[in-house]
Amino acid sequence: MGNAEDERTLQEQREGPVVRRRQQVRPGTTDQRLLDSQGATHWVHEDPFRVLRIQSEFVEGFGALADLGRAVSVFGSARTPEGSPEYEAGVRIGRALAEAGFAVITGGGPGAMEAANKGACEAGGVSVGLGIELPYEQGLNPYVDIGVNFRYFFVRKTMFVKYAQGFVVLPGGVGTLDEFFEALTLVQTKKVTRFPIVLYGSAYWQGLVAWVKDTLVAQGKASPMDLELFRLTDDVDEVVDLMTKESGG
Questions:
Q1: What are the entry keywords (predicted)?
Q2: What is the tens place of the pLDDT at every residue in 20-46?
Q3: Which pTM does this prediction carry?
Q4: Which of 30, 36, 88, 173 suits 181 as a labelling partner, its CA being 20 to 30 A distant?
């Protein structure tokens, strides 16, 4: 009787920092239970697991871009045709920024994004593409040197802001407008240290600028000072000068 009790008291199992004895000893090992598990999978679609995915995207983005140095984010339409004047303007801007010592960050897709990456790549600069998971696949354009793909827009947007000393906004659609107004809001509310925001292409953007001035500001929905938070230009040299001057370069 005593021997049986002694044998039971000696049973011991260590699971990391946890010690189990007697009836609490589990069969097998932690690794074995993990690798043999065929249980329910619904938990991978629930919010606690999504938080881990979001965290991992921030970690990957920060890790990939931490040593990037001075950079400018360039936005524009994925639908800009190759060879068009807008595409060629993107190439010139990407090239000029690279020659001035800036890495060029885009959404990594086709159109205006590809143009800016192409200019930076051909000038020997660092060409970055931050892709996004969409219902239709775009993929990273061939001129991207460092590419990171994201599931979540808000994580990707953080990378555009965190690692850029300025924004250049080429003609674009809804996504480009979203990026422009988000950048403008962050600067206006002082959520980020002020940096230059440039709308490139006066023929394309002048209607929007007029609406901001004649409707938003005129009706008191925005301050006249908000018009000073961005510049409208058709001059590539002015783009580079603004980025260099306001980033302290």
A1: Cytokinin biosynthesis, Hydrolase
A2: 777 778 787 767 776 776 777 777 778
A3: 0.83
A4: 88
